[in-house]
Amino acid sequence: SPLRKITEEQGSALEEALRAKGQDAKVYVGMRYWKPFTEESIEQIKKDGIKELVILPLYPQFSISTSGSSLRLLAEIFKQDKQLSELQHTVIPSWYQRPGYVSAMCDLIQTELETFENKERVEIFFSAHGVPKSYVEEAFDPYQDEMEHSVQLIMKELRKRGVKNHETLAYQSRVGPVEWLQPYTEDAIEDLANNGVDDLLVVPISFVNEHIETLEEIDMEYRELAEEAGIKNWGRVPALNSYPGFIEDLADAVLEARPYIGAIGGVIDDEALVPGGAVQELVSMYDNANEKPLVAWEWGWTRNAETINGRIAMIALAALGCFDLLSGL
User: Burial code of 37-58, b = ≥16 C-beta within 10 A, e = fewer?
Assistant: First the structure.
């Protein structure tokens, strides 16, 4: 998987974008289940004497099983270390609603639409990483709401650009016997083919890097299924990776978050379903808002939840940065 290489390229590009905007910054990348591990990156932050920090998970939409898991780990690390407990920081929990992100996604979708002979007939198929339905209904995970809103914002912008294609949202990577968010990607593809759709453009809406779930699951497994079902023309929008407009928007997000460093109850974006703030503050907010915090915690912000959540658990990451010795990724 090229995940690590691409993520490190994103970090370097973000550093350069921040400096171009007048902010001398250093970006640290931390991953949950592969090097550089989050714990290793935090140790480096301590050694470098960082005084301010913006924490930016590389998931556009928030879920307790992805961004939430990384934030839970950081909360535990900060709680056990006096130096870190005094580190001024803030979190950007999700950022799918940012105009720069929406615009970048639309750019890539339009580019791929041009590769189809009859582009007006193409079904735009958003495939999001799934989560168990219980996360949403019982653990109050905002993921589904944020995902649906994300697709709405992208399609609204595409309409403004003259793109009138129909769209579908489905959820991939289901594992285990429990019910996950529906429709499932494989079922939705077969339904579209049965209803006469010949041209399909898949948009990996959850992912900002190419990795096993785009290169294998979508490009190989779902493409084969689509062709067997009768889809004649297949296309796939690439992940954002280090697309300039995307990196520029991440840099703006970090700069906009800086005034909230150390603030209590800060709301970085009025549209966000999950407000910004310190990691421990966000964790406590989730516990206090949940009628069954311990049970929900087992479902959501734990290693068990990530394992249930499929292969994405292997690539979850929190992107860390420091201003003035702060920056974000």
Answer: ebeebbeebeeeebebbbbbbb
Joined tokens for residue 276: 């910004």
For the beta sheet containing 88-91, the strands, ordered from the edge strand earlier in sequence to the opposite edge, are 25-31, 317-323, 52-57, 88-91
Question: 67-97 burial by CB neighbour count: b if 16+ within 10 A, else e?
Answer: bbbbbbbbbebbeeeeebeebebbbbbbbbb
Summarised one tens digit per residue, pLDDT across range 178-228 is 999 999 999 999 999 999 999 999 999 999 999 999 999 999 999 999 999
pLDDT digits (tens, 9 = 90+) for 191-205: 999 999 999 999 999
Neighbours of 24 (CB within 10 A): 12
Q: Using CA atoms, how far apart are residues 325 and 278, in angstroms rounded to an integer?
A: 18
**Which residue intervals of 21-128 are DSSP H helices?**
38-47, 67-79, 82-85, 99-113
The C-alpha atoms of residue 100 and residue 47 are separated, in whole angstroms, by 34
- Locate 206 and state its tokens: 């959850």
